[in-house]
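During the second year of the project, the team shifted from modelling isolated chains to modelling whole assemblies. The rationale, set out in the original proposal, was that interfaces cannot be judged from single-chain predictions alone. As a representative example for this report, we include one of the complexes processed in the last quarter. Its constituent sequences, exactly as entered into the pipeline, are reproduced here:
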Amino acid sequence: MSASPAVAASERAAPILRVDALKVCYALDGAAIAAVREVSLEVAAGECLGIVGESGSGKSQMVLAALGLLARNARVEGSVSFEGTELLGLPAADLNRIRGSKLSMVFQDPMSSLTPHVRIGVQLAEVLVHHARVTWADAERAALDMLVRVRVPEARRRMRQYPHELSGGMRQRVMIGISLMCGPKVVVADEPTSALDVTVQAQILALLREVRAQSGMSVVLISHDLGVVASLAERIVVMYAGRVVESAPTIELLRTPRHPYTSLLIECAPSLHRARLDRMPCLQGVPPNPLDPEIGCAFAPRCPRVTDLCREQRPPLRRVDGAAVAVAQVACHHPLHP
Amino acid sequence: MTQARESLIEVRGLRVEFDGRAAVDDVGFEIAPGEVLGLVGESGSGKSTLARALLRLVPVNRGTVSFLGTDLLGCTGRALRRLRRDLQIVFQDPLASLDPRMTVGEILTEPLEIFEPTLGRRERHTRVAEMLERVGLQTSVVGRYPHEFSGGQCQRIGIARAMMPRPKLLVCDEPVSSLDVSIQGQIVNLLSDLQRDSGTALLFISHNLAVVRHLSDRVMVMYAGRIVESAMRDALFAAPAHPYTRALLAAVPDPDAALCPASESLVYSYER
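Output from the structure prediction step:
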């Protein structure tokens, strides 16, 4: 209350979620699989950050590590802090106070992330009962309000239904509702629309946009689909082979991609706005094997701008000088733009 | 009369029911030799059931399918086997559609053993090697098993297997949907090259409109088991006639759309 406007402004800009030098690897038959080689990123309060990458780029592993949801045999290094609290190594009881309430998640498959034998209403209400010590009666009233808010039609009837009685799109609305029950500061959505049809996907993206505008929460939207991410995120982080290769505000990234991989991803993205070409744009080759040691730039074997330097030295992720709107970073020896 | 000779496959009034409910209803279309027909629709629209019905993998309740003038639905035994040689399929999940206990060499040789049993060992070997090269794999992979390959490579093997008997119609049921964006283009270009070189007709099924636009000469849109629109490619994408087609086109997430927000107003006009 006594805080000056200047302090309030700086608080708003401070990162709410901060990932620093995060590494995830798995031991397999004596070898180490590097799922996340090294990732650092920040999510500002109220921001929607998009993370784009292909399968195996480490985008999901990174957030699962941040949320303490990795398999037991995963080795994690680095730091993940949420509102200044270090999440890595936090006792499960403390972590559970944050997870699902202040920091919540929406996963790809709404069928397997809902409990099949528990009614929808209970699954929504139990979040409040558990985290906010609200009575069941109050929690169920809040659950009903939430179903209305995420635009589930006939909310009262849906409360008593089981997940299998709902369509994929409705189930994802319920999942989003569950993630919003405690008024989270950050929602992490990992491929939230990848299992849905395009028209349903468009509706779910519209819903995410709407709830974000209402609540001012941060969203971390992870997808392999640049079009999906671009439709919601203000800033995009591009991952390749377990590292961030570029990050920039959405429009800047799409207009003037610096990393050749980003540029090719944009070119390959299925688009109906562009003229039909004789050949479908594509990248040659395949991403590197996470079992192989990392020498030079991971993208070098597929890169049209590759030089000997790229094969020998891994380009560090560096801040771009004079980036147009906000901070932009790129990890490339020969970026397309300075 | 001329019509019958011109089309490779002719489907009339096709209906497929599951538990009395129609998954495909009153579907009719033709594919000319060498033509690429795109089929788009959402999950549950009946497009995969239609593909399976054409391959006699699910029973048909009503309608006719004539393939090169032969009644496809009525034939059995040797006649059916002959038709199957000309009618091959590529499935969505590249790994699940390959037998995990067979080597790549065995997978590609099997269609030859079935459809061209008179072929000698050496000829078979040559045909397999040629096909591997055409789909962009090294001939040294013949001794390896499907799990040793990436999704994109498995799909190359699946396509190679389907093309081995030199079919006249190749049905591709969401062949790139489980692949990464950077790999999708490789497979689409491969299908397009094979199609052009061999003159095989394609029924290309996908929910990805950009991919369908890329490959197809003509496009059909399926909704709730029925064909709601069918038109030449450019006409359909330039001026979609059916409201569902318009909604489908508008819903495609597109990085370019983020740069021109004017197009966004279209996106949410349709509720199922």
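The longest strand of chain A covers residues 15-28. The radius of gyration of chain A is 21 Å.
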